[in-house]
């Protein structure tokens, strides 16, 4: 048996490189192991004794920033080891998204700068106002302002191209973390972990230490679940509309008791409430435990996502009035911006997180001999 | 939680003043506050370092019959007592010890009810899942939970409040003198709980007991256990227990921080290695027993070597056999090069390794059990896991004594009451490391410090509150 101890770092030498610094901290965690019960990161750490860059990328993306380990840690500053694992892993996480993004560079801009994201949103609004003004409508409801053909022409590529870009990034991720062939139980395990946000429950359902320091709270898990399920319902609403249109020849506008509305209205409400909650909790949380230099991009993204939900609800509320046109431009402009920026904004984290959960399920199964 | 200003501290006669801010102090404060008493905690450390050595702990040894919390099967009084007797070699007070053991069973649910969370035993500690309940997140998480609970109960906490002197008239404590926010304050209380730990962070005190060698000792825990209050009580003529010269020391990584290195500085490679001193000579059987049963004696062994340092040397075949050390090993492709890097006499080390290798004999090597693979004709022998150090690269870790706690403490009775020159004090109780020497006079039993702290902390709090009720 041998072990490549040359990968080990000196615990007393704080590094500026995010991956190197995360490695230093993870090595200290692996020698301590007191936090094993909080989340999936620590048991994953204990499976190895030394850590390659890909391992650090995996731990970083598995970490949900619940902060339980920080408040329990006996090595936080002023201790000379200066542990702040939530921050170290958040740094390595942001670094990995920006490094793995395709094309590169865009992610750095939109992850870190809220003003850039706001400018993109304004551009999205302007484009939609221009398109609505330039093209004639061709139907009922909002199609009276922007025809179905034009919508498809804009949104099909705006949806599919970012997905392709994300696919490239996730392939790079999978290679970097040493992922192999997935089995059905891996999907089940990862989907359950994501759906319940198990890694935000503190290990025993008491929640995390996000906005109340040492005190546990389930608020973040709940508002984040509102965002997740709100988003999925909205997405399902749009998808159901597409299916009704193409397969059943049923065109918008849909009534209150149609599938798109039954999914979309609660989805929009959850999304708005969830995003508002996320912003409120973020305002109370200690920024020193979050990602350095990414706060502005993170907040701007939550505003964008919340605005997508809110404008969608308002668009429905003002149906049949003269406000439909402007609101349609605002809603579709925000949706367009949201889609196009998915690989480069905080939205990407959902995809990386799901991939990390899959890799964790797979690694755990393989090491257990499954 | 109210963090007090100086006027708050001196503005009233407190019902109960608790000196110290670790597990025992917090248990006492919570118990007293639950009766409605006005309680003040004087914690010597700053908020970030609050909790004394409790912040480095990770489990609680607990008697139980059938599953209890995270504990499985049964761990009864007799087995617990036998374990204690074995490590202390009789240096214990049976009545007090049995009282602690019996009471531990009701403590675990009390701890849960006051915010402590337990988890299954940590990986690599499965052998303890019957005897020791592990804290989710470790001792600092426990300390945090208790501070929150104490705060919710209205307990006032002063951090960086260094108690310099206990005012005693006859058998009664009247006040304590505290350095706080740049002033010397007189804080009055009707009952006093002393739970301020041992004196292991006062290197001068250690040096008086151990000689100048103590200056090379590393302190595994808090730098704030300087024994100021203990010393003051000794000056008052309070009765003590425990050997004043002894401390519990284990062998840890020689590069560990001077203070507060805690759990991560431990080094588990000794059984698979040879250990040489600064002269390149072996000095003890490295394979005498499995490491959890031997790491404590190695603190003493290394302390007795010149410059209080040892070097554990292994080869490539053994590097993956133990829990990772947080410090990377010193690595070289030959033994002379390794000795050179360590600053050891090259020829002596080469000779020691060659002699050791020549004394090894063929046989089955089993790292997880006593394999009986012993050297022949070597002094000192290595009686297990004696496999030649032959396959490069070679690795070495420096070892130094790491002091965990001291044994000297205040003598207490079953109600945790301290005793002065004229018999028991009227209103002074003591708990935790400060009186643990009564029960743990020698050796160490994993998780038992927290048992003593919790049991006697709670008793001290109840008694103090009853006294002022």
Low-confidence parts of chain A, pLDDT < 50 over ≥5 residues?
Answer: none
The count of β-strands of chain A is 0
Could you state the oligomeric state of the chains shown?
Answer: heterodimer
- Most extensive interface: pair and counts? A-B, 43 and 43 residues
Roughly how much helix do the residues of chain A carry, as a percent range?
Answer: 55-70%
Structural class of chain B, please?
alpha/beta
Mean pLDDT of chain A: 95
Separate helix tally of chain B: 11
Strand content of chain A: under 5%
Supply the number of structural domains of chain A.
2
> Which structural class should the secondary elements of chain A be placed in?
mainly alpha
Q: Enumerate the spans of chain B where pLDDT stays under 50 for 5 or more consecutive residues.
A: none
The tally of domains of chain B stands at 2
What is the CATH third-level topology name of the largest domain in chain B? FAD/NAD(P)-binding domain
Q: What does the average pLDDT of chain B come to?
A: 95
Explain how this protein is built.
- The complex is a heterodimer of chains A (370) and B (469).
- Chain A has 370 residues and is an all-alpha fold.
- Chain A has two domains: 94 residues, no CATH class; 268 residues, no CATH class.
- The two termini of chain A are 23 Å apart.
- In chain A, 65% of the residues lie in helices and 0% in strands.
- Chain A is built from 14 helices and no strands.
- Chain B has two domains: 261 residues, FAD/NAD(P)-binding domain (3-Layer(bba) Sandwich), CATH 3.50.50.60; 153 residues, Succinate dehydrogenase/fumarate reductase flavoprotein, catalytic domain (Flavocytochrome C3, Chain A, domain 1), CATH 3.90.700.10.
- Helices cover 28% and strands 22% of the residues of chain B.
- Chain B has eleven helices and 19 strands.
- In chain B, the strands form four sheets. In chain B, strands 1, 2, 6, 7, 8, 9, 18 and 19 form an eight-stranded mixed sheet that branches.
- The longest helix of chain B has 21 residues.
- The radius of gyration of chain B is 24 Å and the shape is elongated.
- The model of chain B has no long low-confidence stretch (mean pLDDT 95).
- Chains A and B meet through helix 1 and helix 4 of A and helix 5 of B.
- Chain B: This is Tricarballylate dehydrogenase.
- Chain B: Its cofactor is FAD.
- Chain B: GO terms for molecular function: oxidoreductase activity.
- Chain B: It comes from Poseidonocella sedimentorum.
- Chain B: Keywords: FAD, Flavoprotein, Oxidoreductase.
């Amino acid at each position: 048996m041998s072990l490549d101890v040359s990968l080990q770092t000196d615990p007393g030498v704080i590094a500026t490189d995010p991956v190197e610094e995360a490695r230093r901290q993870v090595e200290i965690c692996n020698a301590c192991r007191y936090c094993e019960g909080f989340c999936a990161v620590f048991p994953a750490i204990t499976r190895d004794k030394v850590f390659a860059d890909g391992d650090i990328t995996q731990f970083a993306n598995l970490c949900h920033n619940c902060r339980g380990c920080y408040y329990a840690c006996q090595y936080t500053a002023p201790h000379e080891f200066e542990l702040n694992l939530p921050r170290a892993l958040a740094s390595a996480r942001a670094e990995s998204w920006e490094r793995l993004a395709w094309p590169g560079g865009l992610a750095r801009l939109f992850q870190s700068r809220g003003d850039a994201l706001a400018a993109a949103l304004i551009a999205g609004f302007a484009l939609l106002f221009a398109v609505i003004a330039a093209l004639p409508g061709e139907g009922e409801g909002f199609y009276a302002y922007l025809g179905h053909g034009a919508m498809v022409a804009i949104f099909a590529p705006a949806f599919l191209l970012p997905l392709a870009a994300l696919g490239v990034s996730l392939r790079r991720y999978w290679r970097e973390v040493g992922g192999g062939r997935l089995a059905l139980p891996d999907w089940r395990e990862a989907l359950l972990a994501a759906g319940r946000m198990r890694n935000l429950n503190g290990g025993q359902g008491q929640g995390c230490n996000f906005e109340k320091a040492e005190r546990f709270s389930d608020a973040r898990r709940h508002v984040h679940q509102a965002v997740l399920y709100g988003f999925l319902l909205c997405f399902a609403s749009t998808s159901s509309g597409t299916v009704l249109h193409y397969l059943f020849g049923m065109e918008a506008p849909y009534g209150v008791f149609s599938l798109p509305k039954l999914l979309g209205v609660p989805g929009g409400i959850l999304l708005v409430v969830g995003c508002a909650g996320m912003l409120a909790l973020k305002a109370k949380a200690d920024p020193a435990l979050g990602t350095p230099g990414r706060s502005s991009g993170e907040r701007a993204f939550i505003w964008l996502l919340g605005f997508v939900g809110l404008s969608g609800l308002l668009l429905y509320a003002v149906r049949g009035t003269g406000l439909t046109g402007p609101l349609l431009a605002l809603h579709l402009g925000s949706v367009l911006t949201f889609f196009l920026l998915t690989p480069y904004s905080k939205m990407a984290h959902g995809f990386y997180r799901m991939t990390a959960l899959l890799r964790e399920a797979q690694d755990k199964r393989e090491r257990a001999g499954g | 939680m109210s963090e007090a200003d100086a006027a708050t501290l001196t503005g009233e006669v407190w019902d109960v003043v608790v000196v110290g801010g670790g597990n025992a102090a917090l248990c006492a404060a919570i118990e007293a506050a639950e009766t409605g008493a006005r309680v003040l905690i004087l914690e010597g450390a700053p908020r970030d370092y609050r909790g004394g050595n409790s912040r480095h702990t990770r489990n609680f040894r607990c008697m139980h019959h059938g599953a209890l919390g995270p504990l499985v099967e049964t761990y009864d009084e007799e087995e617990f007592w036998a374990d204690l007797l074995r490590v202390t070699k009789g240096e214990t007070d049976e009545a007090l010890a049995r009282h602690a053991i019996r009471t531990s069973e009701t403590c675990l649910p009390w701890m849960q009810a006051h915010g402590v969370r337990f988890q299954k035993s940590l990986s690599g500690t499965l052998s303890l899942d019957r005897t020791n309940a592990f804290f989710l997140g470790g001792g600092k998480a426990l300390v945090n939970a208790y501070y929150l609970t104490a705060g919710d109960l209205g307990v006032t906490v002063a951090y960086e409040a260094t108690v310099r002197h206990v005012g005693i008239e006859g058998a009664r404590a009247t006040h304590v003198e505290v350095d706080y926010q740049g002033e010397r304050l007189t804080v009055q209380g009707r009952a006093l709980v002393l739970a301020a730990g041992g004196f292991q962070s006062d290197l001068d005190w250690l040096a008086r007991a151990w000689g100048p060698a103590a200056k090379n000792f590393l302190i595994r825990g808090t730098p704030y256990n300087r024994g100021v209050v203990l010393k003051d009580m000794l000056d008052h003529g309070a009765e003590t227990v425990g050997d004043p010269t002894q401390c519990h020391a284990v062998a840890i990584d020689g590069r560990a921080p001077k203070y507060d290195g805690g759990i991560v500085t431990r080094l588990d490679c000794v059984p698979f290695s040879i250990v040489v001193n600064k002269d390149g000579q072996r000095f003890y059987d490295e394979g005498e027993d499995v490491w959890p049963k031997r790491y404590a004696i190695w603190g003493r062994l290394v302390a007795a070597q010149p410059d209080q340092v040892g070097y554990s040397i292994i080869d490539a075949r053994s590097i993956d056999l133990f829990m990772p050390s947080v410090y990377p090993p010193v690595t070289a492709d030959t033994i002379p090069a390794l000795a050179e890097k360590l600053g050891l006499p090259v020829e002596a080390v080469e000779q020691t390794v060659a002699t050791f290798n020549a004394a090894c004999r063929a046989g089955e090597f089993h790292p997880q059990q006593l394999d009986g693979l012993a050297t022949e004709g070597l002094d000192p022998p290595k009686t297990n896991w004696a496999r030649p150090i032959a396959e490069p690269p070679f690795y070495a870790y420096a070892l130094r004594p790491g002091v965990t706690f001291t044994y000297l403490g205040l003598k207490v009775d079953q109600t945790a009451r301290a005793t002065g020159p004229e018999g028991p004090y009227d209103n002074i109780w003591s708990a935790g490391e400060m009186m643990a020497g009564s029960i743990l006079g020698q050796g160490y039993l994993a998780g038992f410090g927290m048992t003593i702290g919790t049991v006697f902390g709670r008793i001290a709090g109840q008694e103090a509150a009853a006294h002022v009720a």
